[in-house]
User: Fold Transport permease protein from Acrocarpospora pleiomorpha.
Amino acid sequence: MRWAVADGWTITRRDLAHWANQPGQILAGLLFPVMIVLMFGYLFGGGMTVPGGGDYREFLMPGMFALTMVFGLETTFAAVSADAARGVTDRFRSLPMASSAVVTGRAAADLLNSALTLAVLVGCGLAVGWRAEAGPGRAALAVGLVLLLRFALLWLGIWLGLVVGNPEALVAVQILVWPVGFLSSALVSPATMPGWLGAIAEWNPLSATAAAARELFGNPGWGGDSWAAQHAVTLAVAWPLLITAVFFPLSIRAFRRLGG
Assistant:
């Protein structure tokens, strides 16, 4: 275990060094969610109605925190598939290192990147009038749930990157991620959707995290009387744990089977 942690940290430092040498990529990743916040908060926000009343930007920000974690899956997929296509991953497999180090190192680096993105989004939210109304303790729990969702989706992105191994397939991943991201309560209430579509949106893992974050931050929520709406915090923990339990071992297995 000690060597696995040490090897994983070496891979993490390698990924962080790449970002330090290519800061433009990080800046672009930080600016994109800020632009989404400004677009929905100011261009479309005037036409949005929050169920039960309340400011739309306060409704929007917890949803954007969660939505940005989902969009991060594309970054993970692109990095992992690029390493696989260039033979970097095969080189790692030939070295005397823990087989889990490549995937855990990648996960740690991307989680640090997501924490930075979340910090920038929080600053953007404060600038546009969003506030955490329920106190710092509950706000910290909300941030933890948002990062837990990102941690779970890391393993899905790593697994897809290892299995596909083709960076050009990023478009296909975007086709998967964007509908899942918008078919949720991140930006609008599921009550505004057709009944069957709203039910799917309510059970979306992203919706659970967004709704739980709104509850913990003390921001306006979309309400609802379904089980998913009444137990958002429970689902915000259960969904990431389930996703991790499925895709973490699949990621390790996919890495071990490369070139086999």
About this structure: The CA atoms of residues 71 and 178 lie 8 Å apart. The two ends are 25 Å apart (CA to CA).
